[in-house]
What does this fold into?
Amino acid sequence: MTQPLHTNATPSRLVVMDIDSTLIDEEVIDLLGEASGHGDLIAGITERAMRGEIDFKQALRERVALLKGLSTDVFDRVLSQTHFTNGALDFVDECHRRGWKVGVVSGGFHEVADSLVERAHLDHCLANRLMVRDGRLTGEVDGDIVTKESKLAALRAWARSDGVPMDRTIAIGDGANDIPMILASGIGIAFCAKPVVQQAAPHSITQRDLRLALPIIDAEDR
It folds into this structure.
């Protein structure tokens, strides 16, 4: 788990978001799948995992195995294909203007996530890493796989380190593995989410504009 990237005064809130299909429009694993020639197969597994139909660890291992042999040059190519969700950077900037911290948790990969974190000036990041040998992907994950449990643990750990009570945290995500952190946070928001997430979350945004989270948060502060 990474340490905070910035050190400011104790914030009044902590926002934790998923990356794929939340902070950005794309699913990075699907873009890697297209580069590997297994795009449709990997996208299908992703969709089932996001709906909560199959175990996330199993699904990730299956997809990563199909990436075996890809050159690490693929990360720059994939990064160039990603787009921040409408309103994402404005939302992060407004959170920081209010003195809040913002982190991301992802079943995606640090090899792409770290550049997104730097560009968006985020404070925390937890993601998977891909194993590389001789400049090529081995088809394995390097270290523990990020799961719904580790996303929740990251939310709690960052809240503790930032001095933010859990009832002042905000969690935003779209997939089944975001549900535990959404339910444990003070304000849980499903963002253009799968039906199972919309049903579970206290709040739901159905338009792809992350700035729409601000009125939900402000309403809770009234």
Remarks:
- Confidence is low (pLDDT under 50) at residues 1-8.
- The CA atoms of residues 68 and 139 lie 4 Å apart.
- The first helix runs from residue 28 to 36.
- The radius of gyration is 17 Å.
